[in-house]
Specification:
The structure is a homodimer of 325-residue chains. Chain A is α+β, with helices and mostly antiparallel strands. Chain A has helices spanning 3-13, 58-76, 94-110, 163-172, 182-190, 196-202, 216-227, 249-258, 274-284; strands at 29-32, 38-47, 79-89, 115-122, 128-137, 154-158, 208-211, 230-234, 265-269, 288-295, 299-303, 309-314. The first copy, chain A, has nine helices and twelve strands. In chain A, the strands form two sheets. The first copy, chain A, has a seven-stranded mixed sheet, sandwiched between helices. A five-stranded mixed sheet of chain A has the order 1-2-5-3-4. The first copy, chain A, starts with a helix and ends in an 11-residue tail after the last strand. The interface between A and B is large, with 64 and 64 residues.
C-alpha cells in the first residue's frame, strides 16, 4: 500500500474502527478472536500494466500475487492459514490459467495457506488479480506493528536489496544490462520469497516491522512516522544483492534505497536482542543485517561512507513521489 | 459465483483443501478456529460494465459491493465481523469516492462489519471493486451449507422475487416500463438488503441454504446438486414483488425463476420446523414463503398452476447458459 493510496483511504474510508481492531494502516489488520489469538487479514490488488507486464510468466505471476500478501502477513508476525483469489480475466486461456494456478498453489502449499475461496469474472479490460490472505497470531501477541519502534533500537533488514528494482529497469528497457546480470537478479523481481518464518520468529524479539515492498526509504518512513521516531541509516551497511557487485555503486545504492518490489522485512529490536536476531538468521539461513538505529529526531538520516549525512525523508513527507502501486 | 466460473475454479484451483476447511464451492469458506467457533470468509469482484453501469449512483454502488458479500455470509449463517475493500480506480474523483464510501460504510456499520483494510490502486481500465467479508460462526455449528438438504424438507425463500431483474431490463432499455414500475422496483436492484439476521436465526433450523444472487433456478440447482437431491417448485407460490402485479404474469414468472441480482436466501428445513420458520419471519418482519419441497429424484421440477410439470434443471446441467457474472 503506497502513500498516495493511504491518504485516499484515510480521507474517505477510515472511520474509527472498533477499539479492538488493530492495524488499519499497518501491513494487515489484526482482529482479536474471542480468547483465542487473533485473525490477521490483508488484501492486495494487482493490475496488468501497472503491477506486472502482460507477458510475465503466468506461474511467476501466480506465485507473486500470493507472495506479496504473505509478505504482509509476515510483517505482522502471523502464520498463514488460508487465502482467497479473485480473478478478472479478459479471456479464458486454459494453459495460462493452469500455469498461474500452479505457481499460486505451490506457494500456498509451501506456507500452509490453502486456497479456500474466491471469484472469477470476465472483463473486457486487462487482467486484475485480487488476493486476500488470512493469518493467525497466537494469544497475547499484538503482532509486529509499525508503531512499536523505540529510540536506540537497532534497525535490521532481511535478505538483499537492489535486485528487483534493477531487474525491472532492465526489463522495461530503461537500463542496458551491460554486465549481463539479469539472469541472476530477475528471480528477486519475479519469484520473491515472503519472509513468513522470519516474521513469526520475530514475535517477542522485534519492536516493530514492515515489509519494504514500496522501497526501503518509503516503507521505513511509514514505520518511523507511526512510531513517532526517526532513524540513522548506515548506507555502507545496506546489503546489496551479490550479483550487483559489478554495477555502478551509485546506481545500486539508489536501487537499494528507493527501489520497490522488495519483499524483505525491515524491523527494529533492542540491542539486548542482537544475539537472538543473529541466531534467527542462522537458523533460517537468511542474512539479517543491522543497517542503522532508531533516533528521537523524527527524520530518516542517511550516513554515507564519506562521512556525509543526508536527510532521506522527514515526518509527513510524501516519501517518494514515484508511487509504484 | 456463477457456474462457468465454478468449473474454471474446479479445474485449476480446487486442490483438495485441508479436511477441516468447509465450503470451497459454497457461498463462503468456513475455517474452524481452534476451539472457538469458525471464521467464515468470502470474496467478490465487481467489474464496471459487467456488474454495474458506469453511471450508477456511487452510494448505491458502495452499498451493493458490500451487500453482495454480506449476503454470502448470511447464506452461511455467519455474523459479520469485518470487511476489506480493494478499489482499482480509473481516476480520483473525490465527490464520487466520498459517496461510494458513505454507501459502503453505512451498510458496514449497520451490520457491525468495520472496514479493517484494503488496497487502492490506479488503473487505465474500468473501475474494479473487490470486497472480502469476514464472519463468525459460533461453536459446534457447521453453518448453513448448500449440501445439507434432505428429502421431504420444505423449500423456502425470503422476501420477494422478480423486481431486480425487471428493473435491470428496464434500465438496460430491453423492456419498456409501460406501467411505470421502475421507481418501485429499482431499490431491489440497487440497494439490496443482505439477509444477515435471517441467516443467523436459521442456524439449527434450516438444513441447507444459498443466496440466489445468480437466480433462483441456477442457485437452487447448486444446492440440489451439492445435496444430491431434487425438488419440486410450486410456481404459483413464488412470491412476486408486489409492484409487479400489473405486469404480464409470464414475464414476472420468468424474472422470478431466472433473474439474478437477488439477495434473498433460499433454504430447506424439515416440516417439523414450520412454526419456527414462520416465527422467524414475523420477528424479522420479512416474508418467508414455502415454495416447494425436496425430492429424491435429482432434478428441479416446476409444478405450474395449470397442473403441468416442467423440468427446470437436471443434475449436472449448466443451469443457465446466460451467466450473469
Amino acid at each position: 500500500m503506497a502513500l498516495g493510496e493511504f491518504s485516499l483511504i484515510d480521507r474517505y474510508f477510515k472511520k474509527k474502527p472498533p477499539a479492538q481492531v488493530i492495524g488499519v494502516g499497518d501491513d494487515a489488520a489484526v482482529l482479536p478472536w474471542a480468547n483465542q489469538g487473533s485473525l490477521v487479514v490483508c488484501k492486495d490488488l494487482l493490475i496488468q500494466g501497472r503491477h506486472f507486464f502482460s507477458d510475465v510468466a503466468p506461474d511467476a505471476l501466480g506465485h507473486k500475487a500470493l507472495a506479496v500478501n504473505l509478505s504482509d502477513l509476515a510483517a505482522m508476525g502471523a502464520r498463514p492459514i488460508g487465502c482467497l483469489l479473485g480473478l478478472a480475466l479478459p479471456s479464458v486461456d486454459e494453459p495460462w490459467l493452469e500455469k498461474f494456478a500452479s505457481g499460486f498453489l505451490a506457494l500456498a502449499h509451501a506456507h500452509g495457506s490453502p486456497l479456500v475461496g474466491g471469484d472469477t469474472v470476465a472483463t473486457n479490460d486487462g487482467l486484475v488479480i485480487s488476493v486476500t490472505a488470512l493469518g493467525y497470531l497466537p494469544d497475547a501477541q499484538p503482532g509486529l506493528l509499525r508503531r512499536g519502534a523505540c529510540v536506540d533500537d537497532r534497525l535490521w533488514v532481511s535478505g538483499y536489496l537492489g535486485a528487483a528494482d534493477l531487474a525491472l529497469k532492465i526489463l522495461q528497457g530503461n537500463l542496458v544490462d551491460e554486465q549481463g546480470v539479469l539472469p541472476q537478479i530477475r528471480q528477486s523481481l519475479e519469484w520473491p520469497e515472503p519472509r513468513v518464518s522470519l516474521g513469526q520468529r520475530l514475535l517477542g524479539v522485534a519492536h516493530a516491522a514492515i515489509d519494504i515492498s514500496d522501497g526501503l526509504v518509503q516503507d521505513l518512513g511509514h514505520l518511523l512516522d507511526q512510531s513517532g521516531v526517526g532513524a540513522v541509516l548506515e548506507i555502507a551497511r545496506l546489503p546489496a544483492h551479490p550479483s550487483l557487485a559489478k554495477l555502478s555503486p551509485d546506481m545500486v545504492q539508489q536501487a537499494m534505497l528507493g527501489g520497490g518490489d522488495v519483499y524483505e522485512l525491515c524491523f527494529t529490536a533492542p540491542a539486548s536482542k542482537d544475539a537472538e536476531v543473529l541466531a534467527i538468521g542462522l537458523a533460517l539461513d537468511l542474512p539479517l543485517t543491522c543497517i542503522g538505529y532508531i533516533t528521537a529526531e523524527r527524520q530518516l538520516m542517511g550516513r554515507y561512507p564519506n562521512g556525509q549525512h543526508r536527510i532521506l525523508s522527514q515526518k509527513g513527507f510524501d516519501h517518494f513521489a514515484g508511487d509504484r502501486s
